[in-house]
Design goal:
The chain has about 160 residues and is α+β, with helices and mostly antiparallel strands. It folds into two domains: about 70 residues, no CATH class; about 60 residues, no CATH class. It is built from four helices and six strands. The strands form two sheets. The protein has a four-stranded mixed beta sheet with strand order 3-4-6-5, with helices on one face. Strands 1-2 form a two-stranded antiparallel ribbon. The longest helix has 23 residues. The radius of gyration is 25 Å and the shape is elongated. The chain starts with a strand and ends in a 6-residue tail after the last helix. The relative contact order is 0.09.
């Protein structure tokens, strides 16, 4: 279960008080009112949890059970990705943009170069899909660390 911040939005009539007042009108009493409480920030926290689990490669699939219709619509619209093979002209996504993968084989240290609409992966000849995936994974981690470092202020102290 993922909880957010509990926020009270005014007061409302409780269901039993509403039924009672509809049967026999009377003045509203303090006990008739209940706080209108909601959880806020849950969607954001679920998204962060999913990103963290995926980044650490702790999951292969995630199941989300929710009664929140907004969340259900977002999850239904979520794009599904097929397993990557790291071959020529395969689509890869970075920061929400699609790039085509170009694979070059050279007797050099593996590297990655980001182009306008392409990602060039340089690996040693005969490298396996697992090796290519590891190089891409390390590159993605480095990009993410750089982006997070810019977003989170460093505490001076």
């Amino acid at each position: 279960m993922r909880l957010g911040e509990t926020v009270t939005h005014e007061w409302r009539l409780g269901s039993s008080a509403m039924k009672s007042l509809m049967k026999a009108p009377r003045p509203v009493q303090p006990g008739d009112l209940v706080p209108n409480v909601s959880q806020e920030g849950v969607d954001l926290r679920i998204g962060l949890d999913i990103a963290r689990l995926a980044l650490r490669e702790m999951v292969q699939a995630i199941v989300v059970v929710t009664g929140d219709s907004d969340q259900q619509a977002k999850l239904r619209g979520q794009a599904r990705e097929t397993p990557r093979q790291f071959v020529e002209r395969e689509s890869h996504y970075l920061w929400g943009r699609r790039y085509l993968l170009t694979v070059t084989e050279e007797e050099a240290k593996p590297s990655i170069r980001l182009g306008h609409r392409s990602i060039t992966l340089t690996v040693r000849p005969g490298s396996s899909s697992a090796t290519r995936a590891a190089v891409m994974h390390e590159w993605h981690k480095a990009l993410l660390h750089e982006a997070v470092r810019e977003m989170i202020p460093v505490a001076c102290g």
